[in-house]
Design brief:
5 strands
């Protein structure tokens, strides 16, 4: 049988698996190597990082919803009920490519500008009716 590790004590001279050899007998000058390197997209120019980040954000955006006549009527009915009887509401609306939800108090509806005036934490906010998707 061929001696693989000639400078080691007798039980380890023929061992081929370094994990079974005690650390004190192993060569400490072996380079560590690259260890674990995680994959990252290549970006050599700083502006590339910003562009790639923007692409990732844009992928999760959705187009502005287009409501049909029935959905608009239903939304109008719920809005009328909320205006006159129970002003507390949860609005689901679209803004800059994302759906957002808002708990607020409905104050009034401006029919000239087609905007809904709401109170959020005592502060007046105007929302376009074209962007509102749901009122609860």
């Amino acid at each position: 049988m061929k001696i693989i590790n000639p400078g080691m004590p007798e039980p380890y001279k023929y061992e081929t698996d370094y994990r079974k050899i005690p650390k004190q007998y192993l060569n400490s000058n072996i380079p560590k190597g690259r260890t674990m390197i995680k994959w990252a997209p290549f970006a050599s120019v700083p502006q590339q990082y910003q562009i790639i980040e923007q692409y990732i954000k844009d992928q999760s955006k959705v187009n502005k919803p287009i409501l049909d006549e029935q959905a608009k009527r239903d939304l109008n009915d719920v809005l009328a009920r909320k205006l006159f009887y129970e002003p507390q509401a949860i609005l689901k609306y679209w803004e800059n490519g994302y759906y957002k939800s808002l708990e607020c108090e409905i104050n009034k509806f401006d029919s000239e500008r087609n905007k809904l005036e709401i109170l959020k934490n005592g502060e007046k906010v105007l929302l376009s009716m074209d962007c509102i998707v749901e009122i609860e």
